[in-house]
Amino acid sequence: MLDKRFIRENPDAVRQAVRVKGLDLDVDELLRLDQEHRKLQFEVDQAQSRRRSFAKEFARADEERRAQLRAEHAEFDQRLKELREQLASTGERLTNLMLQTPMIPWDGAPVGPDESANVVIRSWGEPPTFDFTPLDHVDLAEKRGWAEFARARRVAGERAYVLCGEAVLLERALHSYALAVLGARGFQLMSVPALVKEAPLVGTGMLPKGRAEIYEIPADDAYLAGTAEVSLVGLHSGEILDAGRLPIRYAGISPCFRREIGSASRDVRGLLRVHQFEKVEQFVICAADQAESDRWHAELLGAAEEILQALGLAYQVVECATGDMGVGKYRMNDINTWFPSLGMYRETHSCSSLRDWQARRANVRYRDADGTIRFPFTLNNTAVATPRLLAALIENLQTADHRVRVPEVLRPYLGGRDLL
């Protein structure tokens, strides 16, 4: 969320952010509720002060005056109760709007309604050419006995899958390699819960807007998270960190779950868009300094690009448009990897800078060198997400005899084998 003072002093900037991100938020209503809430808070504070003076006056008064004070106090208590109820109601409505208030996007973001306005800013590698007819990952995996789709659907419904045999080892190798890369870059490795409470989902910005995308478990008052970022933000919720601990760099691995509402017609074959997947997520908490945040944004992108280059997969880095970047994003870059079966680049990574928008929601703070309490900046990016990246690897590195070449960096995790 944004700072209330910033919204009061920059309402036009907030209105512009709402417009370019395609959101339905009444900024004028937010400002009205903020003014009403501050007025009610003042009246409650004044009333509580007056209530304290009652006690002192009552102690000094004679019996006749005490009788008058009792009557006045009963009437006064009723008024104070009404004020508190109004304050609570107004505060709840204000908080609801504050949680929908977007981060102001950076000036370099393309303005557009959705991913159609995204801009490719650089490319690496060339899509492979084959002297044979390549298979898509579904046909190749089924031919090799690496996946079960029909049987998996009997177990778990649509978009379910089971990896088998060498595909399991290849998936594990991808994650092990990603963790090794991030560990060498100084990230702390973290295996985090996928089962989370509501508060960390609100803190990261997944709720309230994204409720339709999240699996809920009402009996346990819990949810299944769609990314390790949720737990990594939640770990420091309510804390005041020492500036000496920053930047905090985590590489979080976890199973992830997304309902994928509204994506029925979008590349759902096989392993491309599933409800359950595994991901290594990069996450950074840094000082509230834009230059430092920019450096970490480049670092997170660089780590993902290092992994893709080592795997030999062609990709494009995309500058995401305002309507595609989400409510809390200041800047967002997708990395799209080449899929031969689709004849196109497809998103495999998403790198986001959120400034202090997320930290304010989660109440993560730090004490800087002069003792001032501040909200830090947060950033995140995928390192590896499977099975989608596994599908890209299988399709791009397949051979004429329906095997798959193993990238050199993965061979140590597969007993030195160069073919599967």
Structure description:
This protein is an alpha+beta fold and 420 residues long. It has 2 domains: 4-98, Serine-tRNA synthetase, tRNA binding domain (Helix Hairpins), CATH 1.10.287; 115-414, BirA Bifunctional Protein, domain 2 (2-Layer Sandwich). The chain is built from 12 helices and 16 strands. The strands form 4 sheets. It has an 8-stranded mixed beta sheet with strand order 1-11-12-13-16-10-9-4. Strands 5-7-6 form a 3-stranded antiparallel beta sheet. Strands 8-14-15 form a 3-stranded mixed beta sheet, with no helix packed on it. α3 (27-60) runs antiparallel to α4 and α5 (137-144) crosses α12. The chain is elongated. It starts with a helix and ends in a 24-residue tail after the last helix. The mean pLDDT is 94.
Itemize the secondary structure elements and their pairings.
Layout lengths: L3 H6 L1 H10 L6 H34 L2 H36 L20 E6 L12 H8 L2 E2 L1 H7 L5 E2 L2 H19 L3 E4 L3 E2 L1 H7 L10 E3 L4 E3 L4 H6 L5 E3 L5 E10 L18 E11 L3 H22 L3 E5 L11 E9 L4 E10 L3 H6 L2 E3 L5 E2 L2 E10 L1 H9 L24
Parallel strand pairs: 4-9, 8-14
Antiparallel strand pairs: 1-11, 2-3, 5-7, 6-7, 9-10, 10-16, 11-12, 12-13, 13-16, 14-15
Helix pairs in contact: 3-4, 5-12
